[in-house]
Amino acid sequence: MITVSSLLDKEWHERYKRIANLNIRSSIYDLTNRCNLRCKGCFFFSSGEHKVAKEEMDIRKWEDFIDKEKARGVNLAILIGGEPTLCMDRLEAFYKRLPTYCATNGLIKVDRAKFPDMMTGISLWGGGEDEKILRGKDTFAISSKNYAGDPYTYYLYTITPKQVGKIEPVIKRIQDVGLKVHLQLLSNDEGVDGFHWQPEELRDIRFEMDDMLDKFPRTVISCKYYHEVITTGKMMGRSFGWMECPSVTETIDNRKPQPKRLIRFIRWASDLQTVHRCCTSATRDCATCKDGAAHMSWIMVNKRAHIRTTKDLQNWIEVYEMFAKLYRLIPW
Ligand code: SF4
Ligand code: SF4
Fold first, then answer.
1. Which atom of ligand 1 is the closest one to the Cα of 44?
2. How far apart are the CA of 123 and the centre of ligand 1, in A?
3. Angle of helix 199-215 relative to helix 224-232, nearest 10 degrees?
4. 17 burial level (CB within 10 Å; 0-12, 13-18, 19+)
5. Which ligand is nearest to the CA of 282?
6. Closest ligand 1 atom to 125 CA
7. Quick check: CB of 294 below 6 Å from ligand 2?
8. 82: CA distance to ligand 1 center in Å?
9. 51 Cβ partners below 8 Å, 6+ apart?
């Protein structure tokens, strides 16, 4: 019988043990319906998710809600929106109660005196020119000043098709300001001209991402198996999509057969009652979804399928380690 122990040598087994018991139960919270940017292709605004619920304004209701979430078993709160830093009191309510991750555009600086070790992921959509087209400004110029050298911050770099062959200078800029970076791919939810992926671009960007990992191993938080799965949409011969997606809100997940999924995962709207379909756009065609977190989780929840060969299991461990590093559950 093939087991974890039979596939791994001592060193890999130690790595496996380090992540095997993390038992993460994450959920996602829209902290607000507002943002200080309006990016073309933002899944939140393009799918109308900012209109489905009226934002709860009473901080005590947020505090009670977070306590209930904790009691429900959530041990990692992922805060998105809208722009979470527009609501520092809600941010603080989460941070005081739960391990918290804040996804921000980085234009507003989180006060480290109040949030000393809160993980912060700054969205970045390519080099300055792409950012001006898609987001209206070169956000890096501002966010890098706010967060340079911060040990609890990394860039979440959404690569667009126009970035193929050009990502190295972006990674280098990030390295030069003493931050780290995780890579994902644009899904182009608003159909911006020239920003749809072609098969050959996906092939090329996969190898470029691999190359960046080899060249900047201390800066890029990633692994090659993740690059393979996110660019091909394939894992162990299976295709990513609605019937495989792990990141669907549990309370409305009626899929049959039920795929392997994130246990207790819910994405809450900012009224603290409404839930969204999944971790990203409510209107996105799953066949076009390139969501990095969903692909990463897809691999992670399918451990059993990877207990097949040594290489398959090592791939799974590397993806899990990548996830754990992104939330600093293990050291960088
Ligand atoms: S900064 Fe984020 S939430 Fe705001 S519009 Fe851009 S992608 Fe959407
Ligand atoms: S859009 Fe993506 S994350 Fe959402 S259900 Fe579809 S495949 Fe999953």
1. 8
2. 8
3. 170
4. exposed
5. 2
6. 7
7. yes
8. 6
9. 33
**C-beta 244 within 6 A of ligand 2:** no
Residue 167: count other Cβ atoms within 10 Å of its Cβ. 22
Question: Tell me: domain 22-288, CATH 1.10.10.10, correct?
Answer: no
Domain assignments of the chain as residue spans, ordered by start: 22-288
Strand partners, 26: 76
Residue nearest to atom 3 of ligand 1 (CA): 82
Res 267: pLDDT = 98
Average pLDDT along the chain, 332 residues, taken 10 residues at a time: 95 96 95 95 91 97 98 98 97 98 98 97 90 92 97 96 94 97 92 90 98 98 98 97 98 97 98 97 92 98 97 98 95 87
Pairing of the two strands 238-239 and 234-235: antiparallel
Counting runs of H as helices and runs of E as strands, what totals does the chain give? 13, 10
Name every protein residue with a CB atom under 6 angstroms from any ligand 1 atom: 35, 37-39, 42, 44-45, 81-83, 105, 123
